[in-house]
Every structure is written in C-alpha cells, then in structure tokens.
Amino acid sequence: MNYMDAFVAAVPTANKAKYLEHARIAAAVFKELGALQVVECWGDDVPEGKVTSFPLAVKCQADETVVFGWISWPSKAVRDRAMAQAMEDPRMQPDVNPMPFDGQRMVYGGFEVLFDG
C-alpha cells in the first residue's frame, strides 16, 4: 500500500513564484528518488476557523497564503530512504534552494494509506 507525506504551510503571497520554483526543484528530486506523485496546492478558499483551521494551524498572516501538498510513495521504506537521500542532495540545500516561507510554522507528517478510492 502507498505511503503519503502531507504538509500545510503559510507562504508570503508575494513569494508565490519563488515557492513554485522551490517546489518544482524539490518535486524533481523526490520523483528521481521514487515518489509516485508530488502535488502542490495554493490556497484559494481556505476559511479561518474559530477553534481550528488550516490558517490557524500555520499562524497564517494577512500577507500570506496557505499551501497544501502531498507526496505519494510506493511504500514507507522507499519514502524513508528517499527523504534521507533528498536531505543530502545539493539541490535541496538551503543555500541553493531556500524555503521561501517560515518552515517552523509548517505542519507535516507521514501517513499510511487506508483507502484510495
């Protein structure tokens, strides 16, 4: 069964083009290392909740946009190997491909797929 990495982050709206370039580089690395699919989504209709929501989870500011994405892997073992290799890849180094957002406010995790309909 596939394995998924998912994340939510707040990106300065002015950095949309920088974010897209960062994402394209990262996606190329992940796919070379075995990812089946890499999806990046730019928030369009993401309401702020009273108790919890995507914007609240990442402390989204007025000049930021929530992004959501996921990476599909054939297995957790492939994902674990690929992530270790990706962090060593020169294209993923902060001085070469800096994150154009505050990574400390990113929410992410790995998920076992229970159903894919």
Give an overview of the whole structure:
It contains 3 helices and 4 strands; from the N terminus they run βαβαβαβ. It has 117 residues and is of the alpha+beta class. The protein has one domain (3-112): Alpha-Beta Plaits, CATH 3.30.70. Strands 2-3-1-4 form a 4-stranded antiparallel β-sheet. The two termini are 13 Å apart.
Helix/strand-derived category reads alpha+beta
**Estimated radius of gyration:** 15 Å
Q: Any idea of the CATH class?
A: Alpha Beta
Secondary structure tally: strands: 4
CATH architecture: 2-Layer Sandwich
* Percent of residues in helices: 25-40%
| Overall outline | globular
* Weakly predicted, low-confidence segments: none
Order of helices and strands: EHEHEHE
Distance between the termini: 13 Å
The profile of the biggest β sheet is: 4 strands, antiparallel
Strand content: 25-35%
Discrete helix count: 3
| Spatial order of strands in the largest sheet | 2-3-1-4
CATH topology: Alpha-Beta Plaits
What is the total domain count? 1
**Average pLDDT over all residues:** 96
